[in-house]
Every structure is written in C-alpha cells, then in structure tokens.
C-alpha cells in the first residue's frame, strides 16, 4: 500500500482516527487529525507554535477556544447534505475544547503560526463562500472555509463535493515550487468521504519526472497526503465524493501550475 494513503479504521479511545504531523509525513507545515466522537465525548488541544482550524464535518457539539464559548455548533448530519460547515479558527497558543452532543466527526487542521496576534474566530456557514468549478464531468462544488482572503497565518482549508462519475483537482495541477505568482509551495492532505460509503474513488499523485507516481483506490474515510506533484481525483459512477483539503507552506497563497500536456482541457471548457 502507498505510504501516502492512510486507511480508515475504528477510532482509538480518544476518538481519533487519523493523526498526521509534519514529522510523520516527512514535511514541514501541515498537520491533520480526524476524530469520530460519541455523544458526551470531549477532545481538546493547544500548541504554542501552531494555529488550528476545527471543522465540524458532521454532527453537533459545544466548543470553547481561548475565552470564547459556543453551544450547538453543527447543522448537518453528513458532509453530503447541501449545507456549509461550521468551523473555528484558533490562533497559536490558544487552547480549545470540543464536546460532542451527537455523534460528531471533527477535523483538526494545523499549521505553523507566525505570532500575528489573530483572534479566535467562529466561522459560521454564512461565512463560508460556495462556488461551482469546472463544467460537464469536471464539475465540483466548493466550500471555502479558510481561503487566503480570510485571516490566518498559514492555513488554507476547503471542502469539495464531486458528483458521481466526475473528476476533481483536474486538469492535474501542482503547487510544490515557490515561484512568485506562478506557483506556491503548499503541502496538502485530502480527507475523503464517499456516498454511499461502499463506493470508491481514485487519486493519483505524481511528478513530471515520475520520481513520485502513486495511484490509489480511495475508500470512505481514507486520507491521502500530497507532499508534491499533481494530484487529480476521479469518483466512480453512482457515488458522490467529498474531501476536506488542508494546505500550508512557507507563503500563504494558492497559486498552482496545471500540467502542460493537459492545459488544452482548460481552453476547451
């Protein structure tokens, strides 16, 4: 099995399913944890050097971060409902805690903080911009949770829903070089869900010289790490794909480079 693919499995005693750190991934910026909590179960965290974005993928919970508290966060029972998520931005050094009031799927996205003094911020569904990208079998639906236009030190966080049989992160693009406005260096994780859950998708991660070239069959709840290279996703007919992207790098901007041999697809659409 590819070292870039982390399979879904039962949560541990703390409710954690996936745990990615810069050390475990062999990179410098992105961290990601996925929790599946039972009602009444609590998870907390604090890191003096890293900021966090807590994403309520599904279910409801009460939360605190810094000196702020909220109750009843979460409006969807599945990421496949046509509803935007709740999220919380937590700057470096601030503590946070989430208590599940229903079964709760919580993503904890982290990256280096830069001491910018940003406040804790609740990101409500109405704060999340929705858009449609692509056309035809390349159509996908995007929820920008923490785009570069919103305050953060390093993190970029987005959800994407891909209709049955469609492609996403396509035409293949990459962001692994720091080249001004042409391209930025961003590590990335993909947390995948599939509806119905017995379905599957495919993701390929590859570089121009093919020194990295991995093709992975992705099932519901799996996680894919993208250290560099192109990373398109195709979803099987009859199934809808969802993924939560976390990106971070030395510069907080999303500039990507489409594979030269596939640029004709952009002109044809």
Overall description:
This protein has 269 residues and is mostly beta strands. The chain has one domain: Jelly Rolls (Sandwich), CATH 2.60.120. The protein has helices at 22-25, 264-268; strands spanning 5-6, 16-20, 31-37, 42-45, 50-58, 61-65, 68-73, 87-90, 96-100, 104-112, 121-123, 129-133, 140-146, 156-162, 167-168, 173-174, 187-195, 200-206, 213-219, 223-226, 233-235, 240-248, 257-258. The strands form 5 sheets. Strands 1-20-17-22-14-13-12 form a 7-stranded antiparallel beta sheet, with no helix packed on it. Strands 2-3-10-5-8-11 form a 6-stranded antiparallel beta sheet. A hairpin with a 6-residue loop joins strand 18 (200-206) and strand 19. The longest helix is centred in the last third of the chain and has 5 residues, at 264-268. It starts with a strand and ends with a helix. The relative contact order is 0.19. The mean pLDDT is 97.
Question: Which terms would index this structure?
Answer:
mainly beta, seven-stranded antiparallel sheet, 2 helices, single chain, globular
Question: What is this entry, summarized?
Answer:
The chain is mainly β. It is 3% helix and 46% strand.
Helix and strand sequence: EEHEEEEEEEEEEEEEEEEEEEEEH
Identify the CATH homologous superfamily.
Answer: Jelly Rolls
By CATH, the architecture is named Sandwich
Number of helices: 2
Instruction: Return the domain count.
Output: 1
The total beta strand count reads: 23
* Strand residue content: over 45%
How much helix, percentage-wise, in residues? under 10%
The spatial strand order of the largest sheet comes to 1-20-17-22-14-13-12
Poorly predicted regions: none
Rg, please?
18 Å
Shape: globular
What name does CATH use for the topology? Jelly Rolls
Q: Major sheet: size, sense and barrel closure?
A: 7 strands, antiparallel
Give the overall pLDDT as a whole number.
Answer: 97
Task: State the end-to-end CA separation.
Answer: 35 Å
């Amino acid at each position: 099995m590819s070292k870039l693919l982390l399979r879904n499995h039962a949560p541990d005693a703390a409710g954690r399913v996936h745990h990615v750190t810069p050390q475990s991934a062999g990179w410098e910026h992105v961290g990601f944890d996925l929790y599946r909590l039972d009602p009444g179960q609590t998870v907390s965290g604090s890191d003096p050097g890293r900021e966090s974005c807590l994403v309520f993928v599904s279910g409801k919970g009460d939360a605190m971060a810094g000196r702020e508290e909220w109750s009843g966060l979460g409006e969807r029972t599945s990421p496949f409902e046509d509803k935007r998520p709740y999220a919380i931005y937590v700057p470096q050094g601030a503590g946070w805690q989430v208590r599940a009031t229903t079964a709760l799927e919580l993503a904890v996205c982290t990256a280096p903080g830069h001491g910018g003094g940003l406040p804790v911020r609740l990101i409500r569904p109405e704060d999340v911009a929705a858009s449609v990208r692509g056309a035809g079998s390349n159509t996908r639906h995007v929820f920008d949770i923490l785009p570069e236009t919103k305050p953060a030190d390093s993190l970029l966080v987005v959800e994407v829903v891909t209709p049955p049989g469609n492609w996403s992160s396509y035409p293949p693009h990459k962001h692994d070089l720091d080249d001004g406005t042409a391209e930025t260096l961003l590590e990335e994780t993909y947390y995948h869900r599939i509806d119905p859950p017995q379905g599957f998708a495919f993701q390929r991660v590859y570089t121009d010289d093919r020194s990295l070239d991995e093709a992975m069959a992705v099932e519901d709840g799996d996680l894919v790490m993208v250290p560099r290279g192109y990373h398109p996703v195709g979803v099987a007919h009859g199934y809808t794909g969802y993924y939560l992207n976390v990106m971070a790098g030395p510069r907080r901007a999303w500039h990507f480079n489409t594979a030269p041999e596939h640029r004709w697809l952009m002109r044809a659409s």
